Amino acid sequence: MRGIVFDGQRLRMDSELPVPSVESDQSLLQIRRAGICNTDLEIVKGYMGFTGVLGHEFVAQVLTGPDDLVGRRVVGEINVACQACEQCRRGVPSQCYHRTTVGIDRHPGAFADYLALATRNLLVVPDSVTDDQAVFVEPLAAALQILEAVHISPRDRVVLIGAGKLGLLCAQVIRLLGVELTVIVRRERPAQLLDRWGIAHESPDGVAPRCADIVIDCTGTESGFASALDLVKPRGVLILKSTYTGLPQANLTRIAVDEIQVVGSRCGPFSAALRLLADGLIDCESMIDKRYPLADGLVAFEAASQPGALKIMLEVDGA
Prior knowledge:
By secondary structure, the protein is an alpha/beta fold.
């Protein structure tokens, strides 16, 4: 089996990996397509101390598993929960104390020909959703988690910073609420996409301080938190939608004095993401920059690491 492996020091293509063994609660998946995201790039820099096959955004075909799933296209929720801890009993498996995470934390990922994954994590992809669209289910679900974490009124003014892969999905989700939404952009490509979608955008110096009821930070940069804090009104909400590569420096006194809520937001509902895609409400295919066969995975990673790159797709099945 082929796979893109990070060994703790370097990224490499391995063509002699064993096909995963399948436990009783798992299904064996043949990966059809996968996407490279910023988390994958950060893992190669040391994030989470992960070693093994990378990748968590994917669509696959079930090779072995329950009869009603064999042969069907599926996506897979990335948090593999223990089903026994306090968080699991509360119905929050994404915060399971003992979870592993596909391609991120102690669980093999999807940048390979095959993946063994807990059957309970699989969702069938509707026929109307293409393979390309299905690859975006995981980040789109993360965008939808904003709506579970925070009540957003149609009267709110929302500013989103960080118009990359995740930020553009978040912007499309928030637009559906009818709010006054502005996205801060620094590059021409996301600006063109936002124009196509009818979403307002401004340069970083085009938005006044303390103008937003809600600010969504999708930057993943140390300066992003401070920039977001500058934009939120007193008693407003600051949503952290991506992990940071460093330790942000910010004026925490202002958070206390202005009574600003800071809300973290992580993984979200896959089923809702599939419904949005099936209903044609989200344009993700326009965000695909390039495609590479799995055999050219290292070249694909290099392309994904370029400033301003959007989605780089790996075509695995038969590639």
